[in-house]
Automatic annotation (TrEMBL):
Protein localization: Secreted
Protein name: Peroxidase
Residues carrying the site annotation Transition state stabilizer: R62
Residues where Ca(2+) 1 binds: D67, V70, G72, D74, S76, E88
Positions of transmembrane segments: 12-31
Origin species: Beta vulgaris subsp. vulgaris
Amino acid sequence: MENFLVKLHVISFMFSIYSLPLTLALQLGFYSSSCPNAENIVRQIVQQRFNGDRSVPAALLRMHFHDCFVRGCDASILIDSTNNNQTEKVAGANGTVREYTLIDQIKAALEQSCRQTVSCADIITLATRDAVALAGGPRYNVPTGRLDGLISRASEVNLPGPSSTVSQVQQSFGARGLSLNDMVVLLGAHTIGVSHCNFFQDRLSNFQGSGAPDPTMDRALANRLSGLCGANPNANPSTFLDQNTSFVFDNEFYNQIRKNRGILKIDQELALDTLSARFVSSLAGNNNLFRQSFVNAMIKLGNIQGNGGEIRRNCRRRN
């Protein structure tokens, strides 16, 4: 009987190992032996791109978030569509995602250095981290070892929208193992982001069919944005989500939304909803708290389990 219990315990232990999420395979310095210069290659190419365009950090943050929220962090957002399959890249929510060419450039350099060793999923994660630091944000280490996904479908892209409520967005984040505070901090990446008029124009003149602007938006800001968005009916211009330190990764976004200067409805709701208002106030008054909280949340985001199965030679298609 004792031997049976010992065997049962061993079987139970082994089952618990195999049942652990794939994220536990990630580790710091995963490529230290297989491709020692991998992280330096990523950093150098992101630096070169940033030198020519300071908006790159915002673009990479958006790509990283949109990738991880669909099938986990598996670079499924990078796969091009075919005649037989419309991929995530062409979904409406991903229409403004960009910097695919930058990922291609990094991948090409890594393939020259270490053939089929560094995954596209890790490239997105590392490039985003390095871009955040270039924008004045925190420098931090991220574990690597992700695999690239084999599946990408536009029909699976279901991201929280700019007009969602705090509770709706919280539910979406919670389904992916992220807390309310993680949500508030990750939306703080809007401190270097932009939005096109079509995502907030309803707030400027006919909010929810009222025939008037959204009363929660600063009137001077609403007037300015009305001029921007109405200047050319055929255009869809953009504006910074942080109206003050627009290219600097800091906590100013929270100070802006506390002054009713949030551009997107969800951003403004963060400062108004009792679920999030207190934490927003803390972040607005403490940049170090924002920086550390952001690092923790980004690592959690990057650890969302993907369904990867290979290391792509070309990030735009399966091997």
